[in-house]
Amino acid sequence: MGDDGDIAVRCEGLTKRFGPGTGVFGLDLSIRRGEVYGLLGPNGAGKSTALRMLVGLIRPASGTATVLGHPAGTRSSLRGVGALIEAPALYPHLCGRDNLRVLAGYASVPAARVDRVLEAVGMTAKAHVAFRAYSLGMKQRLAVAAALLKDPALLILDEPTNGLDPEGVVGMRDLIAGLRRDNRTVLLSSHLLSEVEHACDRVGVIRRGRLIAEGTVAELRGGVDGGGLSVTVDSPERAAGLVRQLSAVRSVSVVGGELRVAVDPHEAAAVNRLLVMNGLAVSGLRRRVPSLEDVFFDLVEDHRATGPESVEVVNR
Ligand SMILES: Nc1ncnc2c1ncn2[C@@H]1O[C@H](COP(=O)(O)OP(=O)(O)OP(=O)(O)O)[C@@H](O)[C@H]1O
């Protein structure tokens, strides 16, 4: 099979069924070269299963997947792919650099590449430290370095921030931003909305093995019912009762002491006037842009309402 032009990954009807509603069903994806694409979904949505099919760890029951212009899982497709899907086998007693040297030897990669990838993941200063002494974030960075050894055109990262502390998450985010600048194609999975929101050019939302939405973060946001207003006011509960009476208001909630009003933002003056006239001090009023989290839960809720079975959404 030849080159697939600008497309790094193409899946058509990719299916692997483990049980009713469990697995991946009819997944259609097109990931362009040079983009960072996030597969977002709750636990058990089928993200890992999809990624495993792309690297040949699982054979699809039906459908096709093409990776870098070759059938997924074949030697020719894997030549250009670096993957972090299972924790790589790294020796605890060896330092980071020696671990990578061993892997470079297995993969017939020139040893000079080791220092390049250590630098790419920001681990040069810790390269001499034994792997067992690394923090989880450092171990994860070294695993990404291992995936980069072959200088892959496509990097597949399954939940790269899973289990990391906030510092590790920021480090991984910076690392992914660096990969994007390198013009590499990155396909990552995450259940962390904020991660995908910041790291990815496009996002596919997957639930119960099916792609339920796809687009840029801005496009996905556009599909949600407005954002409305955030109001900082004393006595937010009383304020909520008052604002609810306005006919233009669709819903009101109090989140973290702040009033969230689902209303056309042009109604800001009317909301402000009503509160002030009732003796409440409004210290802040701003337009609220829906976060990807709003989009995600909106979508999942929507599908929960219309889908054949219920789903538990768990945020790890
Ligand atoms: N080999 C298998 N045999 C049976 N069921 C499986 C197998 N692999 C995965 N599953 C099930 O398929 C569903 C999807 O799993 P998958 O690991 O792809 O989800 P995920 O979206 O990556 O979620 P998580 O973040 O929890 O890993 C889950 O219900 C899982 O238990």
From TrEMBL:
<dbReference type="Pfam" id="PF00005">
    <property type="entry name" value="ABC_tran"/>
</dbReference>
<dbReference type="InterPro" id="IPR003593">
    <property type="entry name" value="AAA+_ATPase"/>
</dbReference>
<dbReference type="InterPro" id="IPR003439">
    <property type="entry name" value="ABC_transporter-like_ATP-bd"/>
</dbReference>
<dbReference type="InterPro" id="IPR017871">
    <property type="entry name" value="ABC_transporter-like_CS"/>
</dbReference>
<dbReference type="GO" id="GO:0016887">
    <property type="term" value="F:ATP hydrolysis activity"/>
</dbReference>
<comment type="similarity">
    <text>Belongs to the ABC transporter superfamily.</text>
</comment>
<keyword id="KW-0067">ATP-binding</keyword>
<keyword id="KW-0813">Transport</keyword>
<dbReference type="GO" id="GO:0005524">
    <property type="term" value="F:ATP binding"/>
</dbReference>
<dbReference type="InterPro" id="IPR025302">
    <property type="entry name" value="DrrA1/2-like_C"/>
</dbReference>
<dbReference type="Pfam" id="PF13732">
    <property type="entry name" value="DrrA1-3_C"/>
</dbReference>
<protein>
    <submittedName>
        <fullName>ABC transporter ATP-binding protein</fullName>
    </submittedName>
</protein>
<keyword id="KW-0547">Nucleotide-binding</keyword>
<dbReference type="InterPro" id="IPR027417">
    <property type="entry name" value="P-loop_NTPase"/>
</dbReference>
<feature type="domain" description="ABC transporter">
    <location>
        <begin position="9"/>
        <end position="233"/>
    </location>
</feature>
